[in-house]
Design goal:
By secondary structure, the chain is of the alpha+beta class. It has one domain (38-185): tt1808, chain A, CATH 3.90.1570. Helices cover 25% and strands 24% of the residues. The longest helix has 20 residues, at 40-59. The protein starts with 11 loop residues before the first helix and ends in a 10-residue tail after the last helix. The model has no long low-confidence stretch (mean pLDDT 87).
């Protein structure tokens, strides 16, 4: 009788020791997630969103807007690489490296066919547990963003505008999704 296969539990140090081979390695609750290089459309959508978010973050002095790759530690020894994320100014990054970064105020994943399940289930759950303020899953083909907050059981699906307001004393960032999601990005145009 065959023994049942036991899923390997990875450590942060083991994942950090993997080769730099162009793949994205993440560690969520001991589970190794491996993603190929993103599609061109993914990167175009990511940079366009970065441009919108980073202006708002800088203007309101909320912290810094960064892009993957990263080795964020959301606690429990995780190694997370959101496509885009906003964090308060890091605490001594030269000394502490990625461990000097706080839990993101905003984390964003641009949905790809190879990562959809992990983005919507595995990462979403972990981001919620870690207290990420807001988690967006941007679906380029659908022209919509799923908005998740820590206690939400279901996302708010935005298809016209999406708002982000990390501080109630500030006006929200409002993004017109009909302008953001360009028609030439749809259906694997890249």
């Amino acid at each position: 009788m065959a023994m049942p296969q036991v899923e390997r539990i990875w450590s942060r140090d083991e994942v950090l020791a993997l080769p730099n081979d162009g793949k994205r390695y993440e560690l969520i609750d001991g589970q190794l997630l491996v993603s190929p290089s993103p599609r061109a459309v993914h990167q175009l959508a990511l940079v366009a969103l970065y441009d919108l978010v980073s202006i708002y973050v800088g203007h309101h002095r909320l912290g810094v807007t960064l892009l993957s790759p990263a080795d964020l530690d959301l606690g429990r020894g995780d190694l997370s690489q959101p496509d885009l994320y906003v964090v308060p100014e890091p605490d001594r990054p030269a000394e502490l490296g990625w461990r000097g970064f706080a839990v993101p105020l905003l984390a964003v994943e641009i949905l790809s066919p190879s990562t959809a399940r992990h983005d919507r289930i595995t990462k979403r759950r972990r981001y919620q547990q870690a207290g990420v303020g807001t988690y967006w899953i941007a679906d380029v083909d659908a022209g919509a963003i799923e908005v998740w907050t820590p206690g939400a059981e279901r996302p708010v699906v935005a298809d016209r505008t999406v708002e982000w307001q990390p501080d109630r004393a500030l006006p929200p960032l409002v993004i017109d999704l009909e302008r953001y999601f360009r028609p030439e990005w749809r259906s694997g145009a890249g």
